[in-house]
Amino acid sequence: LFNFFGTVHIVGLCWTMARRHRQPKTGRRSRRHGEGEQGVDSANGAASKRDYVRAAITAVALLSAWHLTTDKPAKPAINDPWSDRRQSSHQLSVGTDDQRLIGSDESGGDEGLDGLDVTLDEVEFDGGLAIDGILSDEDFSFIIKDRPHFKNYAYLIVTYHKSGHALSHTLANYLMRYLKLKKTMFSKVERHDFVSDTVRCSKMSLVPGSVTVIEAPEFHCNREKLANLLMHNQSKKKKWGVKLIHLVRNPFSMAVSNYLYHRQDPTPEPFVHTKDPCSTLTGKSLGKEGYKVADLVTPVLSHPGMTVRMKGIKTLSSRTPIMERGDFDKIVEDCYSLYRTKPGLESASYYEHLRSLPNTEGIRLSTADKFSHIAYMASNMLLFDHVTDVVNLRKDKRERGIAKKYPNRNRDIYRITLPLDDWIEQPGVIFRKFLDFIFQEYMPEDRKVDLSQRYESHYLREKETWNHVTSGKNIQESAELIKSLRRSPVFGEPMEHIESLLDEILRRESGGVWCPDGYWHMAC
Questions:
Q1: What is the tally of structural domains in the chain?
Q2: At 138, is the pLDDT very low, low, confident or very high (cuts 50, 70, 90)?
Q3: What is the tens place of the pLDDT at every residue in 319-328?
Q4: Which domain holds residue 434?
Q5: pTM greater than the 0.85 cutoff
Q6: DSSP string covering 454-505
């Protein structure tokens, strides 16, 4: 605001001075005040000098403020495929001491800044804050000094409601800090509930040397367009590709976490007092065309293009749907069978239902409300896998010297899927995976082991300090809630399909094999 109004002020002063210098010298004003021609010239000259001084002072202050608060933005590329409409209202600026997220201004506020998971018990504990205090600049400075290529990548962290909100921002902060990326460099992303009517995807600008955190992105375009979106470089800086960190969660534990979190007294988020929990999947409209969430995710989930093995019991072929459109209708129908149908709850709020309904019914209501995030997670797991295949195919053709027409063929995508459940159960192991993914062989093995052990020890100490706010939430209750969802004729099968899809994605990324016990391992 200061920069804007300062610029307007300078322009106004210059315009005023120009007008005064163009005015003819007349004695009209001077005679009225008993002065001669010389008085007119003196008065005009004094006014001009004052204006020059004011303009100079304002300009110096303006330049100082601009230098302290901003960096030069990257110039947009001429052939920007996303230049048709930019309404960036979901942005992240990360650094050592500055963190902010501008979320959706959707009515009810349920999709903006989610509450931190660290306020719950060991099942809900996010662990994002556990990294603070155990790593120093010296732990990473030796890497950055000799390996400046880290800045040639764009870093994208994708998360969902109750799959690691605090963790995602902590990881982003540490990437910014230890990779020595510019503090004010952030990527612009469309509102996560905005869908481009042209390509049906959230639009973003993943420039090299930036870190982007986006929750539940709307990726509903085909794999080729999504690959182009991720690989596109709006900056003139060299871009080697994208490193994608996908924070996910077992759908059952995600649903339980969501239920336990929002039914707290007092509730951490106010939207539960005003929202219709049954409207998310088929009642909420996105984009100019009024897309429904269920209609957007169904094409990918109904044609997964991936063989999924379900705990060794059966195998879903690449043509077997993870979910179909009718599954979403059943969820909505089940939700409305609970919402405002019970005696005494005919006009009650969503929150009052969460506090009053039996656990087995309350969790069905809350899962229907946030099932869009579970569906987005499943859809994006499939899409990211397909996009990786597209980019690798382009890379192969690039190396063989054919198909030069493909855009962004000189860029790579590196992807890792990190379940929040593993951050909770095996903090040292999962942190080691994170280090391997980001730093690869450029960080010595002994350094990775040391950092992972320090992280796990600090994590366990931090977790103990949060146990006093669980307010009755315990592992036994969570297990019973998961069991009720598995037995549900509405949620059971779709969520088990998504659970198996997550296992298959993790197996593929790790190079594991399916074993006779029905689970995958690195070796049987």
A1: 2
A2: low
A3: 899 999 999 9
A4: 89-253+371-521
A5: no
A6: HHHHHHHHHHHHHGGG-TT--HHHHHHHHHHHHH-TTTHHHHHHHHHHHHHH
